[in-house]
Write a structure and sequence with these properties.
single chain, Pnp Oxidase, Chain A, 6 helices, 7 strands, 32% helix
Length: 212
């Protein structure tokens, strides 16, 4: 991924973005054309500083067969994005742009043993159910054994040992306070959630940059 130096974010912030989004596009090479699937995932930071990502696919999805005994993959985690009109800046000689947050992860994917699938499902459900508190979390033990075993056989769990992370937040950081305030107001006049999310991110940047 091309990352402009003004928009680059460091690994710690990139991992935080991965954890918060927890959904991305997994891309694998094939002999004819790349193959990809949209998947939720977990991020595991190891004591040795290495990062592993866990996810799973339907057994009917050929992606796990393409991985074989190991395969280089790309995981694209896209955050919110929004168009910025130059009219919002109230400054002359500006041009349109598209703001966004993106993280690209490359590494080696391996298929995990079937014996690990239940533990993977339990880790996944625990992580995502925590977002729904105070609802009592769903756990796999709520399923009867036959139903649980059938569902586990229907999926294949995969781990990615991360080798490189590239990340950026393209949020008009190179512009002045007037442009920031105008973009925030313009984005908040829109009725889509992504524009509002970008407005909040730009406001945070403006606070750090100008409210000193």
């Amino acid at each position: 991924m091309y990352v402009h130096p003004a928009f680059k974010i460091e690994t710690t912030e990139a991992i935080a973005h991965l954890r918060q989004r927890a959904f991305g596009l997994l891309v694998l090479p094939t002999s004819d054309a790349p193959s990809a699937s949209h998947l939720p995932f977990l991020v595991d930071e190891r004591p040795d500083g290495k990062v592993r990502i866990e996810l799973h696919v339907a057994r009917a999805n050929r992606l796990h067969t393409l991985i074989g005994t190991g395969c280089k993959v790309l995981l694209v985690c896209q955050g919110p994005d929004a168009y910025i009109s130059p009219d919002w800046y109230s400054v002359a000689n500006q041009v349109p742009t598209w703001t966004h947050a993106s993280v690209h992860v490359t590494g080696t994917a391996v298929v995990l043993p079937e014996a690990d699938t239940l533990a993977h499902v339990d880790r996944s459900s625990e992580y995502f159910e925590q977002r729904l508190l105070p609802k009592k979390p769903w756990i796999s033990a709520k399923l009867d054994t036959a139903r649980r075993d059938a569902m586990l056989k229907a999926i294949v769990s995969i781990a990615i040992d991360v080798e490189n992370i590239e990340a950026q937040k393209k949020l008009i950081q190179h512009k002045g306070e007037t442009e920031h305030r105008g973009a925030i107001a313009g984005l908040r006049s829109r009725d889509d959630a992504s524009s509002h999310a970008i407005a909040a991110m730009i406001e945070q940047t403006a606070t750090e940059k100008f409210d000193q």
